[in-house]
Amino acid sequence: MLPSLTLAFTCGLALGSLIPYFPLSCSILLIVAAIVLTILEKRHRVTGRLATAWFCCVLTGVLYWAVVVHASPSVLFVEPEPNLLESCTGRIIAPVQQMAERSVMLVKRDGVMPDSGIPRIIRLTWRVPERLLFQGDRIRFSTKLRSPSGALNPGGFDYAGYLERQGIEALASVTGVGGVELLESGRASTWWGIWNQFDRWRASIRLAALQSLSQPALGLFLGIIIGERGYLDPELRDQFMITGTVHLLSISGSHLGLVALLTFVFMKRAVLLLPGTWLLGISRSVTATRIAAATTVVPVTGYACLAGAELATVRSLVMLLVTLLAKWLGYEQRMFHALALAALAILLHDPRALYDISFQLSFLSVCAIAAWCSRSCSSEEGEPSKRSTALATGINWAREGVGMSAVVTLVTIPLVAFYFNQMPWLGLFTNIVAVPVMGLLLVPLGLLAGLWEIIDGAATLPLASLIQSLIDWFVEGVTVMAKV
User: Fold this and answer.
1) Which of 74, 308, 369, 381 could cross-link 95 (Cys pair, CB 3.0–4.6 Å)?
2) 136: Cβ–Cβ under 8 A, 6 or more apart, which residues?
3) What distance in Å separates the CA atoms of residue 311 and residue 216, rounded to the nearest whole number?
4) Band of the pLDDT at 388, cuts 50, 70, 90?
5) What is the Cα–Cα distance from 356 to 161, expressed in whole angstroms?
6) What distance in Å separates the CA atoms of residue 418 and residue 123, rounded to the nearest whole number?
7) Interior CA angle at 434 toward 439 and 410, to 5°?
């Protein structure tokens, strides 16, 4: 029931976003929906309780969008005179994105009320920075504030809308030594100190990679391990887009799922290897599965924070946490319920995420995977169990992988064509090889090297030559496919 209620709530959010532009049409749609549900109830197609719940979720979505988005105070920002510099003091509230010769940070200004008409959230670009800054640091800078603006080309990427969905109200930039003054380290605060430490770990991995890897391996390594795409070559990004493998550059389910799987299996095996008397005493209060599920929460959540907690990462994290909770409680795992709960959590936090490209692509992909897995499980239950050879198992996995890759690619092609004006049909074939290589080889090696760098603190990346060779080989394959 949860998936259908979440879908109804999502439809209500979409309808609520259109009411200011099409009030009459949206009202007619609500009336038609009520009539249709009433007819279905009278014909005993749905129960009255379920029909009422669906319609209430739609209305809740409409009201939630109106309260959270439309009723929130908007900043009518008027740019100052061209030569007027404004002094701003605030705290960095997101992981600092490092790029070649510049740092990009999200700053929340101090002492500015939401309804004051003064921009609170500023996206600051520091060109040629003299030092590293981290999330949680309080800083001061003087600059000219600019209002976000987007492309006016029909069908082009709406950069201003993208910034608005992130809550960014103004843009600013400074250059060189003294451009930004550090007032207080994020370590001075208990809450911000946690995020500050994660950002410092990201910086240590980045520094080690810069000293150990060369392009294009450097950009790809930072993208798939800590979610930082500032060093990724734009031409290489286009090649991943053409081959339908651009989803591999986003830290999402494959990365977090790998961490969860390795941790869960290792901890469960470790508990089962304990002496018999110890295992008997432990099993009286908690099982090995419960211990493994509880201990998996920490590394999975930690890696999500290390990766910057982007939308796709948070979606995957919520799904994994729900799955681990089901393991702990001993309930049947239901992928659609975990997906619905993840969507509900993200949309309640920010309803505008509904129109985010990452949100739409990631959830549509996982829905396709869940449907494919459900079909596979149903077909297996209907067949008599029999022993399979290693060859038969391998062929079955390959067939399932090809089918899943084809389904995901076909389902996401309309969205990719709409947003990027491309038809990545090559993904039907490239993902069959690219996903296993990335998930079973490159990501584990990268995570191992990054973890070792955090523990050891050396300024060089372990296994650098092996990682460089493997990524160069992988990129060469993507380049060849892109030219087909």
Assistant:
1) 308
2) 91, 92, 185, 186, 187, 189, 192, 193, 195, 196, 199
3) 25
4) low
5) 10
6) 28
7) 110
Q: Dihedral angle at the C-alpha atoms of 167, 354, 225, 328, nearest 10 degrees?
A: 120
The burial class, CB within 10 Å (0-12 / 13-18 / 19+), for 231 is buried
Phi first, then psi: what are they for 228, rounded to 5°? -110, 110
Reported as a single tens digit per residue, the pLDDT across 17-33 is 888 888 888 889 999 98
Which DSSP state fits 176? S
**Average of pLDDT values for 105-118?**
80
| Of the ranges 174-183, 275-284, 409-418, 422-431, the best mean pLDDT one | 174-183
Give the mean pLDDT of 159-167: 72
Structure-token pair, residue 452: 């070792």
Residue 136: name the closest of 171, 170, 167, 182 by CA: 182
pLDDT of residue 378: 52
**Residue 454 in contact with residue 303, Cβ under 8 Å?**
no
Which of 211, 247, 210 lies closest to 230 in space, CA to CA?
210
388 or 397, greater pLDDT: 397
75 vs 366, more confident: 366
Cα 153 to Cα 158, 166, 198, 266, distances in angstroms: 9, 22, 39, 53
Q: What is the reported pLDDT for 277?
A: 81
| Cβ(102)–Cβ(210) below 8 Å | no
pLDDT at 401: 62
How far does the chain reach from its first CA to its final CA, in angstroms?
46
CA distance 424 to 398: 21
How far apart are the C-alpha atoms of 366 and 339, rounded to whole Å?
A: 8
